[in-house]
Amino acid sequence: MPAILFKFQEDDPVVTGYIKRETLDDVERWQTRDDYDFELHSGHLTGYPIYIRTVQYARATSNIPKFDTLNKSATDYTQISDFANADKLGSLPLPAKNEILTLIANNWEAFSELAQNYWNNTPVSTKTREEIEHEAWVNAETSDTGQHFDQISLNQFRSMYCL
Which domain range does residue 73 map to? Predict the structure, then answer.
């Protein structure tokens, strides 16, 4: 399954697809910066990781900075150096780093719910995982900020959507 990028914003299809309305209503702060995206991708046997992809590492395929929401809490991530592969976040401006830390500190329940529902394939909306991912991909393509992940081939697209 390809990587799915999202912004921690109230109208993002990944956010609305995997976080209940009640939890969304309790979010204290939303992402406003474009220096980074959050990312989900398969291939992990343990934990509920959420990745942080910066523009500088838009094409990286390994060692992407991440935080795990399984058996962890916001207090495990109070500084950038607490993240796995934190060195790749070093190029972010200080306001972006501060925003990431603030989002996690204030919205741990929402991030945890999103990750658990994604990894367990239990969307909270009426959409399937494939529909959520397609909508996220369309949003990313139509609001292009210059950050790109590898393009998929027509055969990969057909395979993903059983065409």
Answer: 4-160
| DSSP per position, 54-112 | ESTTTT--S---EEE-TT--GGG-SSGGGSBTGGGGTTS-HHHHHHHHHHHHH-HHHHH
Q: Which two structure tokens, joined as six digits, stand for 90? A: 């070093």
Q: Indicate the pTM of the whole model.
A: 0.82
Main-chain dihedrals φ then ψ at residue 152, nearest 5 degrees: -100, 155
Domain count along the chain: 1
**How far, in Å, CA of 123 to CA of 140, rounded?**
20
With cut-offs at 50, 70 and 90, classify the pLDDT of residue 111: very high
